[in-house]
Amino acid sequence: MKLKTVEINGKQYAEIDTAGLPVYVHDDGKEIGFDAPLATKKITELNGEAKNHRLAKEAAEEKLAKFAAIEDPKKAIEALEMLSKSTRKS
């Protein structure tokens, strides 16, 4: 994206749209006003969301690490069921 400029008295100035936003031109020629405060707010929100996802992932990985030594979960469940049955019979 490139900032759209206008020349006034030999100096370059950013062109602004009707909302007072600086206009940027995309590679395809589409012009759009850039709302920096809104973009900054959205980036902050997304960073917070990413942090929450990262923390949740780390917590899940920490809980899952306790089971890392189990190579075959199906066999482990079968063994627990057998142990449970033998404990009930005793």
TrEMBL record:
The organism's place on the tree of life at top rank: Bacteria
Protein name: Phage protein
Species annotation: Escherichia coli
